[in-house]
Write a structure and sequence with these properties.
The strands form 4 sheets. A 5-stranded parallel β-sheet has the order 2-4-6-8-10, with no helix packed on it. It has one domain (3-193). It is of the alpha/beta class. The chain has helices at residues 3-21, 48-51, and strands spanning 45-47, 57-58, 71-73, 80-81, 94-96, 105-106, 118-121, 127-128, 140-143, 156-157, 170-173, 190-193.
Length: 195
Amino acid sequence: MNKIAFSIIVVSMFACMLITTSNALKPLEDKPLNGNCDDVDELGHLNIAALYPEADRIQQYQYYNCSSVKSVTFPDAIFSIGQEAFSLCKNLEVVNFGSDSKLNQIAIQAFLRTGIKDFVVPPLVKAVMYEAFNGASLKSFTFQKPCDSESNQNIQFFSGALGFNPRLKSIEVPKTAVLPEEGVQDIGVKVTYCP
């Protein structure tokens, strides 16, 4: 076998291995930056749980600026929502997670300037990154299992995670929550720690 044929075989095997080992949603390489809006049904619902039941992460910019999405249902296997994944989805109001959600991290500006009014944090979330909900329409930000000693242990809120949500007046966080130095209090949100 010559070197060129051998190289082609090795590259092909590596590519197949990458394709079969990743459960991520299809990358945006073959979609426009405002991509994947075609996953949204005619009523504005994006049912990722039905479309991609084995997906374990939402990639960055996956549904960026998709104005047709009004609600999202996530599969339990999703552990990460990528940077700006739903950023500028101004009509997105409802986000649903299952009771066995594996969600661990909400990345930088994941829900920036969306229409989300109420957000319920799944119990395994450990990080709400910088400006994750900045400029959303939040009225409430609650925990799926509030004050449960096993849930959201040491959850960390990064700077501006809940910024510019004037209708959000208070949140109750686990007693082990880590807030940024400037805190969410600095944006007018009253923080109460669970007993």
